[in-house]
Design goal:
heterotrimer, A mainly alpha, B alpha/beta, C alpha+beta, A: mainly alpha, 11 helices, about 0% strand, globular, C: alpha+beta, three-stranded mixed sheet, two-stranded antiparallel ribbon, about 20% strand, binds ligand MGD, binds iron/sulfur cluster, binds molybdenum atom
Chain lengths: ~290, ~950, ~250
């Protein structure tokens, strides 16, 4: 799949943002006044910023409101509904904290669940696609959720939780990678089933339908070199998980060093962006089977 | 309807609300208006000439579809035809006459008015006509108005006129006409409704593109089988049930081996051979006789056969005659044997046995036998009779027609070789032996064919300054006397057609014009006038060499070819090489006439012709080329275009189409003559074109059922053809399995007769002009080291492109924007090629560096590419970075019009020695893997575009 | 509505004969022409005369080489457009309701006025049947020529998809695959029509007729068709006697 920057930015940032909102909704930490303002501003900047980024790749952003209508069937629609519900509820909740110094706990918990729901629905947009076997696994929501929770915890300063969740997320990430490699082969979809010609013999693509390129090739047929992918996985693993974990451990040891936490956040966000880039770039859409391998 | 959708298939739907309750759909307008008006004309995205419905919206072309009533395409339309709208609106269209201002080849022009353009042309042409008409060479390419352009050239008085047939497929046309009075191309077709086995040799697309596809569809629907003989398995060969991946240039051998097997097994149609061919005709068999090998005739010049009833010789066409295929005849001490003897004797020889040819053909002996058996089985075991009563030319009435459901078709794959004429003849011999020509289920002619050679004109070349030529330029020679030689024996024509080099060159040799004119051999010319042929690019062999010939100057600083006038509609590569450009309209903007006098659109069951008419007016200052020729003729007062009183006969081409008469009552269009009711023959009808338009742009006259088969011998058909004006009296004939004309050339080469070939050609004529089909290796094989150049290199037409001119089409160029060289598995592995690699491809003549791709369904010694995809930078209103120019390439750089020298000091033409057909497919190459260059080589510098470049985005919609 | 109808009155679709398709691209261009001028936004082309031309096409013809265990390789031309799936994942993923499947005939369409151009439906389609138009920025797909097949401004015989009407080889058939007695259903039955990627669970309405067996002429048994007229030693003369006696 084409690793579109808007989508990478969106999923990375909104994952962090909704993760932070989740913790804030639970009152972890329970902050009020300017402190609350800072936390909520950060959470909204990340989540709303991410959502805005995601509209960049829409052909007709002016019609984006229509995307709320199909929640009965569409995960994308559900994502929108969840996100808006979470943002509105938590805005009330945040206003309580910032302006009234009170924590409306029920609203916060519901908001937290909606925030998590948003991350879950985002993940489900990808998970539901049988056409991309690498994504079509329960590990995908597990990955998105664990990352969001870990990143959120980190931002929320819940260092122990962050450390535990980050380790869990790392485990899911490794499992996801391992399962993802070969997912296309295991999916049962190949050029033989794609063409129905497998019963005659070995099928290979001879000529593409057009020598010119097209939307499908640009959108779905993206090839990353094996070496390049491994390098990026290493970067994602170190920057996204190992280094922040060490930094958090350091911060815990030092009793909450802010520079170390900031470092952990930046490393984590960068690493996860790399992981997200790979999430798309390595994902093979079955439509690629129809085209000659280049 | 029947069952509810499965629930819970995926998470996305696990919580679906009951669908139909909430199901709201937008209201669609299911009957939108399709167009304001439909105008019916004839497609010209290729030479198939399908009928089209042009849907107009707001006075503009909105959509083009096939015309269901049209005899050629019956409603269907190919990719090119549907893309016509993009052609018609292409940014590469020329806009105004152009006068060259820069050096030739630079593409620098100045736009001028038509007045000036016509004046310049006249100033060049008039002195030529007055003093030396042969100094004008007028050659046309993809022309479909040859009967008109040749009429113009004839009236101008130059002998130097031809269309492009000589480099196209004259072998196919000439072999067919000399053998059976009609050919493949678009001039005949299988009996698609009834044929059960269809064998296709060397065809990628052909002119009859839509009819062949329609036919294949019908045949498949009827459960028929296809055998494809082709080194490459794409297109028609991909849907063939059996693929024979033959080694290029060896089809003749393969076919003669099939004939060997059929003869040996007696699986030939003896009755058919005896009645309808010259197999029973007696041949002088005395090697000492000056008439050795000629056919025996009676005093009226009619062929003699032995009548089995009387045992006596008799003219072949007598009533009640039973020609004998076996009896010999002595006269004046000379033994005469029937052709059948010679034939059987030759092809029963072991040299034609499958085992003897298998290796050279690349087809195993058992497979050759299996195919022979299949032909025999279908021809004789699936034979049937149609209960149609008919009378033959001997006056005998038959109550049925014998059907043999085996049919063949073939084109350039066998004809574009130096042994092509004889190979085409071999194929016709095979058809005839099976009794499958002009019979139900077999191969059928389309009017105006069948037509015996003797009815065709002979070539004319007598020049009289200021006067018309003595007759039509092209035709069919019947012996040395008909050659186009001057008194001193030198060639009369610039292309050396109808000379000892290629005596039966019925279509001329357009591919030799530029190089002969450049060499001044046989003489120098003054003006080269060309129409619709991209001769500095894909149309020519030796492309780089030709560009040099066109731009070279002599010592005096003059161009070696002094003047070039060219008519094109688009900014092609050739435009840059002309001094004066006469811009043509697109096919939707002009009158054209697809005439029975030319290459009509007939079907086996009907004579048909058609027109084009301006369905839209040009939005540029361009004129239909034929109209420009009329205007030039008027300006020069050419006879044939001028009344007694000096006034012009025709105002423009439409006027000519309507009012011209070749013979009284016979004009360019056969339909709606006289008061509108006469067909074929009849007085001029001033409203004829309007009647064509009302009728959908065409005219059809059906062949009566009793005349539908056995046409060469069928009295009803002959009478119908006379009525249609196809000829003036019935012209029945028998097929020339043995072509006596060829024997006459051999006799001359053996020293008989007054007109003698030059000595260096004697041996070749004796060898190659055999009156019975033979096979010899393609000439290039004998001229280059086949170990050095072990690989055959071919091109194929892509179905969705027409030569160079598809590239300017925004839709088509996305389908074929560049072309790899396809390499078979063995060579691919041997050279260690990988996807994305490039190769240097060299021939004895040149080299190119091009991208390669792998193909398994390919003859193991053959590489190939799509034809004419490569483009020159600056042409066709494309960006200079267009893939056609950076990755696309032409094989033409590797092919020379002359063969390499070898010992004898002669550079023989790279052509068939009989017809002069360009031997495109004799090419031998070697390949090697090289690092990918920046772009395909040779990278030729850009030319200036006289029309600028196309727009950056297209969102074409003319309606709201 | 992005939920799928429980059932549709008809299942209109195409049946494509891989045994007959010669790969001519006529259907590709005819489709481009009709749909540029008709339903919705024109099918645009970017850089049409430049270095990287790319345009929207609703139907494209691929080609595949198949090498059997024995016998020569085969080439199969393979047209592909929307298969109007019964379980169309492209419809259910659509967040706006722009993608829908018609209850009357099962045609899957995009309502271009509602489409936000998110592209998700194209992600969900396994067949590459949807293309985002670069200019209009809405999703384009085969409409099964819904504006032809019922169009009262067209003569009745022309109320078929543009690609079907134009296909020179007659390799494309249009009809109601929900009616077991329709001509297309019978053809599918007779020729073993197949689904593409059945494992994706989309249940395509369009069917493909597989190529017939190829290269089957027996090389061992010529069925007595080639029994010589005479045995070798007598040669030509013997042949002549025997053969010409027959006339
Ligand atoms: N390597 C290789 N080379 C080949 C062949 C091959 O098989 N292999 N095939 C050969 C054969 S058989 C042929 S016939 C030739 C064909 O080659 P050409 O005859 O050159 O054919 P095109 O390139 O299609 O077009 C010729 C010119 O006609 C112009 N034209 C198009 N429409 C119009 C019009 O309406 N009016 C006017 N005045 N001009 C118009 C085009 O712009 C173009 O410049 O190529 C030959 N070259
Ligand atoms: N779409 C489209 N249609 C066209 C044209 C076009 O440019 N585009 N051009 C038109 C013109 S001008 C012409 S002349 C006709 C030509 O129509 P075709 O005769 O179909 O021309 P080519 O494409 O040259 O195809 C030659 C075929 O012969 C095969 N071949 C080559 N050598 C041999 C051999 O030795 N033996 C056998 N058995 N096969 C061999 C090649 O693989 C190829 O398939 O097409 C006309 N129709
Ligand atoms: S075959 Fe195609 S391009 Fe040629 S005349 Fe017919 S529709 Fe036009
Ligand atoms: S038009 Fe017909 S034959 Fe041509 S590519 Fe399309 S389906 Fe195949
Ligand atoms: S083919 Fe693709 S676009 Fe068409 S209905 Fe099926 S899933 Fe949807
Ligand atoms: S691109 Fe348009 S039709 Fe497709 S899912 Fe998005 S909104 Fe729906
Ligand atoms: S049915 Fe219509 S829209 Fe669909 S591929 Fe055919 S022509 Fe195109
Ligand atoms: Mo040609």
């Amino acid at each position: 799949m084409h690793p579109a920057p808007s989508v990478i930015v969106f999923t990375t940032l909104s994952g962090l943002g909704f993760g932070l909102l989740f913790w804030l909704g639970l009152g972890l930490p329970t902050v009020t006044g300017w402190g609350a303002f800072f936390y909520f501003a950060l959470a909204y900047a990340l989540s709303v910023g991410g959502l805005l980024a995601s509209t960049f790749h829409l052909g007709h952003p002016e019609r984006a409101w229509r995307a709320f209508t199909q929640w009965r069937s569409s995960w994308l629609s559900r994502e929108g509904v969840c996100a808006v519900a979470a943002l509105i509820l938590l805005a009330f909740y945040g206003a309580g904290l910032v302006f009234f110094g009170t924590r409306w706990g029920t609203i916060g918990v519901i908001g937290s669940l909606l925030a998590l729901g948003t991350v879950f629905t985002t993940a489900m947009i990808y998970t539901q696609l049988k056409t991309v076997p690498r994504w079509n696994t329960p590990l995908t929501p597990a990955l998105f959720l664990s990352l969001s929770l870990a990143g959120g915890a980190l931002l929320a300063g819940q260092l122990t939780a962050a450390l535990t969740l980050l380790i869990a997320a790392a485990a899911v990430q490794v499992a996801w990678w391992l399962k993802g490699d070969g997912a296309l082969e295991r999916s049962g979809t190949d050029l033989a089933t794609a063409t129905g010609l497998g019963s005659i013999g070995a099928v290979r693509s001879f000529e593409p339908p057009h020598t010119g390129t097209n939307y499908l090739l640009k959108e779905f047929v993206y090839v990353v070199g094996r070496k390049h992918a491994l390098k990026l996985r290493a970067i994602a693993g170190v920057a996204g998980y190992v280094a922040p974990a060490l930094a958090i451990a350091g911060a815990v040891a030092l009793g909450g060093s802010v520079p170390l936490i900031i470092l952990a956040v930046l490393l984590h966000a960068g690493g996860i962006a790399a992981s997200r880039w790979l999430f798309f770039a390595e994902a093979e859409h079955v439509v690629g089977l129809y085209y000659p391998r280049s | 309807m029947e069952r509810a959708r499965l629930a819970g298939r995926d998470p996305a739907k696990s919580d679906d609300a009951p669908g139909s309750m909430t199901h709201t759909q937008p209201k669609l307008d299911l009957s939108p208006k399709v167009s304001d008006e439909v105008r019916q004309t004839t497609c010209y995205m290729c030479a198939c000439r399908c009928g089209i419905n042009v849907h107009m919206k707001d006075g503009k072309v909105a959509y083009i579809e096939g015309n269901r009533d049209h005899p050629v395409n019956q409603g269907v339309l190919c990719a090119k035809g549907s893309a016509g709208i993009m052609q018609h609106n292409a940014p590469s269209r020329l806009r105004k006459p152009l006068k060259r201002v820069g050096e030739r080849g630079s593409g620098e022009f100045e736009e001028i008015e038509w007045e000036e353009a016509l004046q310049i042309a006249c100033d060049w042409l008039e002195p030529i006509r007055r003093d030396n008409p042969e100094k004008l060479a007028f050659f046309t390419g993809r022309d479909q108005s040859q009967s008109f352009t040749s009429f113009w050239a004839q009236n101008f008085g130059t002998p130097n006129y031809a269309a492009h047939g000589g480099f196209c497929s004259v072998n196919m046309a000439a072999a067919g006409i000399y053998t059976m009075g009609g050919a493949f191309w678009e001039f005949g077709q299988p009996d698609w409704e009834r044929t059960k086995l269809f064998m296709l040799f060397g065809v990628a697309e052909d002119h009859d593109s839509n009819p062949i596809k329609i036919g294949i569809g019908k045949l498949k629907a009827n459960g028929g089988k296809i055998i494809g003989v082709n080194p490459i398995r794409t297109g028609y060969n991909a849907v063939a049930d059996e693929w024979v991946g033959i080694t290029p240039g060896t089809d003749g051998l393969f076919i003669l081996a099939l004939i060997h097997e059929l003869l040996k097994a007696g699986k030939i149609d003896l009755d058919y051979l005896a009645r309808y061919t010259n197999c029973p005709v007696l041949v002088n068999s005395d090697p000492a006789s000056p008439e050795y090998g000629l056919l025996l005739r009676d005093d009226d010049g009619k062929f003699l056969v032995i009548d089995r009833v009387t045992g006596k010789p008799a003219a072949f066409d007598q009533k009640g005659l039973r020609p004998s295929l076996s009896a010999t005849y002595e006269r004046d001490g000379i033994t005469h044997r029937p052709v059948m003897h010679l034939l059987a004797e030759r092809y029963l020889q072991e040299e034609y046995a499958p085992e003897a040819v298998a290796e050279r053909c690349g087809v195993s002996a058992p497979r050759i036998k299996a195919i022979a058996a299949e032909l025999a089985r279908v021809a004789f075991e699936e034979a049937f009779e149609l209960p149609i009563t008919w009378t033959d030319f001997r006056g005998e009435t038959h109550t049925s027609m014998q059907g043999r459901p085996v049919s063949f078709h073939s084109m350039r794959g066998i004809s574009a070789h130096s042994n092509g004429f004889q190979t085409c003849r071999s194929l016709h011999l095979l058809q005839i032996l099976l009794g499958s020509v002009e019979v139900p289920g077999g191969f059928r002619f389309k009017p105006p064919y069948p037509k015996p050679v003797s009815v065709h004109p002979k070539p004319h070349c007598k020049v009289t300054p200021g006067k018309p030529l003595d007759g039509p330029h092209l035709g069919f020679v019947q012996g040395p006397d008909d050659l186009a030689l001057k008194e001193d024996g030198t060639p009369a024509r610039i292309d050396k057609a109808f000379t000892w080099d290629n005596p039966m060159s019925s279509h001329g040799l357009m591919h030799m014009v530029i190089s002969n004119a450049y060499a001044g051999d046989p003489y120098k010319i003054d003006t080269l006038f060309m129409y619709m042929a991209n001769m500095s690019w894909n149309s020519t062999m030796n492309t780089s060499g030709v560009m040099k010939m066109l731009t070279d100057k002599d010592e005096s600083g003059e161009y070696v070819i002094p003047r070039i006038i060219y008519s094109d509609a688009y900014s092609s590569e050739m435009v840059a090489y002309a001094d004066l450009i006469l811009p043509d309209t697109t096919y939707l903007e002009r009158h054209d006439c697809i005439s029975l006098l030319d290459r009509p659109i007939c079907e086996a069951d009907a004579a048909a012709d058609a027109i084009r008419w301006p369905v839209v007016e040009p939005d540029r200052d361009v004129r239909g080329f034929q109209t420009v020729l009329v205007q030039l003729a008027n300006k020069m007062g050419l006879p044939g275009f001028t009344n007694e009183d000096g006034s012009a006969k025709y105002e423009d081409y439409a006027d000519y189409i309507t009012n011209h008469e070749r013979k009284p009552g016979i004009g360019p269009l056969a339909g709606f003559r006289g008061n509108g009711e006469s067909r074929g023959r009849g007085p001029v009808n001033p409203d004829q074109i309007d009647r064509y338009i009302e009728n959908g742009g065409f005219f059809v006259s059906h062949v009566p059922e009793e005349a539908s088969y056995m046409k060469p011998w069928n009295a009803d058909y002959q009478d119908w053809a006379v009525g249609m004006g196809l000829y003036d009296s019935p012209q029945p004939y028998i097929f020339d399995v043995y072509v006596e004309t060829m024997r006459k050339f051999q006799l001359a080469a053996e020293g008989h007769g007054d007109r003698q070939p030059p000595d260096h050609l004697r041996a070749r004529i004796k060898e190659t002009l055999d009156p019975l089909p033979i096979w010899y290796p393609p000439f290039e094989d004998g001229r280059v080291d086949t170990e050095d150049f072990p690989i055959h290199a071919l091109t194929q037409r892509p179905m969705a492109m027409y030569h160079s001119w598809g590239t300017q089409n925004a839709w088509l160029r996305q389908i074929h924007g560049h072309n790899p060289l396809y390499v078979p598995t063995g060579l691919w592995e041997q050279h260690g090629f990988k996807t994305g690699d490039w190769a240097r491809v060299s021939s004895a003549h040149g080299e190119i560096t091009v991208p390669v791709a792998h193909m398994a369904a390919l003859n193991e010694n053959t590489v190939w590419t799509w034809n004419a995809i490569g483009k020159r930078k600056g042409a066709w209103a494309l960006d200079e970075g267009a893939p056609e120019a950076t990755k696309g390439f032409l094989l033409n750089h590797l092919i020379h019009e002359l063969l390499p020298t070898k010992g004898d000091g002669h550079r023989w033409a790279n052509s068939d020695p009989i017809t002069g057909q360009a031997a495109w497919f004799d090419l031998r190459v070697k390949i090697e893997k090289v690092a990918a260059p920046a772009e395909a080589e040779p990278a030729i510098p850009p030319i200036n575009s006289p029309v600028g470049q196309g727009p950056e985005v297209l969102t074409w919609k003319v309606g709201k | 509505m992005t939920t799928l109808p429980d059932s549709t009155d008809k299942k209109l679709g195409l049946v494509i004969d891989l045994d007959t398709c010669v790969g001519c691209h006529a259907c590709v261009v005819s489709c481009k022409g009709w749909n540029t001028e008709n339903y919705g936004a024109p099918l645009s082309d970017t850089d049409p005369f430049g270095a990287e031309p790319a345009g929207t096409f609703l139907n494209r013809v691929h080609s595949y080489e198949v090498t059997p265990d024995e016998g020569p390789a085969q080439l199969i031309h393979f047209p592909k457009s929307c298969l109007h799936c019964e379980d169309a994942p492209c419809v259910t993923v659509c967040p706006t309701g722009a993608s829908y499947k018609r209850v009357e005939d099962g045609i899957v369409l995009v309502n271009e006025d509602h489409c936000i151009g998110c592209g998700l439906c194209a992600w969900a389609c396994p067949y590459g049947a949807r293309e985002m138009d670069a200019e209009a920025q809405v999703m384009k797909k085969c409409t099964l020529c819904v504006d032809r097949i019922y169009n009262e401004n067209l003569p009745e015989e022309d109320r078929v998809p543009s690609c079907v009407r134009t296909c020179p080889a007659g390799a494309r058939h249009f009809g109601d695959l929900g009616d077991p007695n329709s001509a297309v259903s019978l053809l599918v039955e007779e020729r073993g029509g197949m689904d593409l990627m059945p494992e994706q669970g989309t249940r395509p309405v369009n069917k493909y007729l597989p190529p017939r067996l190829k290269d089957t002429i027996s090389t061992s048994d010529t069925g007595g068709c080639l029994t010589p007229v005479v045995e070798e030693p007598k040669g030509f003369v013997g042949w002549l006697d025997k053969m010409l006696d027959k006339v």
